[in-house]
């Protein structure tokens, strides 16, 4: 009788495990479908804004950067989620907000650097000593308030961690953008660079 109870318990456990595995696969498949849909929409949005960037910029100079910043930031986050197989709409919204803010202030920041500094060296130095930490701080604050509603020790830790990684990435783009890329194309190029950086940020936070 005791052995029969053990066998019966093992069968019940196997059935429970099987039931648990089915929803998990279903959820994973559903998440993948949602992420593929999000990726397609974000790619279409990014391409459309890119091709309309100049014409939009003539009438609404800050709308085009905001839209392109939002779409590429969302694209980076969705791609990161696709790699993990987990769909999180809140994180996508968070990166959209970050992309809008980043897009608007990046185009203004680039203009400030070009107007006030003729020297390539000064532009890059100011960009990396002021711009990079400032933009990273804004992202860290958005991330902290979005996730917990407050700034904590972990916020400071994540800020310095991301800032450390940023100095392995952004100085090279800053030099190449001011040296080789025409002024009108610096911001769109920056959005492409931000696409890669947002994927990195997604893994860091």
Automatic annotation (TrEMBL):
UniProt keyword annotations, A-Z: Membrane, Transmembrane, Transmembrane helix
Topology class, membrane: Multi-pass membrane protein
Cellular component GO terms held in the UniProt record: peroxisomal membrane
Transmembrane segments: 92-114, 120-146, 167-187
Cellular localization per UniProt: Membrane
Organism superkingdom: Eukaryota
Family: Belongs to the peroxisomal membrane protein PXMP2/4 family.
Protein name: Piso0_002488 protein
Organism field: Pichia sorbitophila (strain ATCC MYA-4447 / BCRC 22081 / CBS 7064 / NBRC 10061 / NRRL Y-12695)
Source taxonomy: Eukaryota, Fungi, Dikarya, Ascomycota, Saccharomycotina
């Amino acid at each position: 009788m005791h052995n029969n109870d053990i066998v019966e318990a093992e069968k019940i456990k196997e059935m429970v495990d099987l039931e648990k595995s089915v929803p998990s696969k279903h959820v994973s498949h559903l998440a993948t479908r949602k992420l593929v849909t999000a990726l397609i929409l974000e790619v279409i949005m990014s391409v459309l804004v890119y091709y309309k960037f100049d014409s939009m910029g003539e009438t609404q100079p800050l709308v085009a950067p905001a839209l392109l910043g939002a779409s590429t930031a969302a694209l980076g986050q969705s791609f990161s989620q696709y790699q993990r197989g987990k769909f999180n709409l809140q994180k996508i919204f968070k990166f959209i907000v970050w992309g809008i803010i980043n897009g608007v202030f990046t185009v203004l920041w680039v203009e400030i650097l070009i107007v006030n500094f003729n020297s390539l060296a000064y532009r890059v130095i100011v960009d990396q000593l002021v711009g990079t930490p400032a933009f990273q701080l804004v992202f860290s604050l958005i991330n902290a308030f979005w996730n917990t509603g407050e700034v904590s020790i972990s916020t400071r830790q994540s800020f310095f961690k991301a800032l450390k990684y940023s100095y392995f990435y952004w100085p090279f783009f800053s030099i190449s953008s001011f040296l080789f890329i025409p002024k009108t194309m610096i911001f769109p190029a920056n959005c492409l660079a931000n696409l890669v950086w947002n994927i990195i940020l997604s893994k860091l936070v």
